[in-house]
Amino acid sequence: MSKSLSGKTALITGSTSGIGLAYARALAGEGANVVINGFGDADAIEKERHGLEALSGAKALYSGHDLTRVDQIEAMMKDAAEAFGGVDILINNAGTQHVAPVEEFPVDKWDLIIALNLNSAFHTTRLAIPTMKSKKWGRIIQTASAHSLTASPYKSAYVTAKHGLAGFTKTVALETATFGITANCISPGYVWTPLVENQIPDTMKARNMTREQVMNDVLLAGQPTKQFVTVDQVAAMALFLCSDAAANITGANMSIDGGWTAQ
Ligand code: NAD
Prior knowledge:
Elements lengths: L8 E4 L5 H12 L3 E5 L4 H15 L3 E4 L6 H15 L4 E4 L14 H29 L2 E6 L12 H21 L4 E8 L5 H4 L1 H9 L3 H9 L11 H12 L10 E4 L7
Parallel strand pairs: 1-2, 1-4, 2-3, 4-5, 5-6, 6-7
Helix pairs in contact: 1-2, 1-9, 3-4, 4-5, 7-8
The structure holds nicotinamide-adenine-dinucleotide (NAD).
């Protein structure tokens, strides 16, 4: 039976863990070829790649390219073009964080966050658009963040990159609007990923708090539902944005943040 994304190719940056991996599984589940990217244990990645092929009945390619480097991004996009004739669905998701006051913010961390969280999305997008235009169909999705709409102290580089991503996406949406291409941001609040889970024991110790106190009074303090977003909820939004029903959603910033940015 044909699935909704059979014959399409999706490239998801930063998809060896967390939200990116959930996107890859969701899109493969709908029959897409997937290009996954990111770092991690080689055996675990290979196992995941096989699993994605079993899910999709199509192909899964792994790219270990470092997206802080333009030449590596170009190589990844070339590999995808050679394997699949181009990318139909581009999800810019790779990202990192560093927390420090502006006057103490390490310059190398600033450069890393801007390169990975913002510049890499420009490079993948500029390289993906020509094929999308020629096919008159494309989906560009950015994992932005609640921090594309609001700020928190000590996250200057991250907030700058995510606000930049939101502006970039609106411009791309306008430039591609008559080509069957949509460009949108998904902006999660706190998402339950291993990254978040691993912070809990240390925070319990540092603040002398219970697990529940850390979850509610620290991590979820700004999230009115007092619930973490799940990676599957974020991936479901991406699937919807890839559907025909979402063909007129472009230039939008879709919040999935338990009400964070409503405040
Ligand atoms: P994660 O750390 O689990 O995943 C990050 C991915 O990026 C990994 O696959 C990693 O290998 C890859 N990566 C890191 N550096 C790279 C590089 N130089 N080149 C290529 N790949 C690289 O994080 P996550 O929580 O799944 O976050 C994914 C995205 O979602 C990020 O853009 C993040 O800002 C955003 N986001 C996360 C949350 C949250 O609460 N977890 C909330 C809002 C937005």
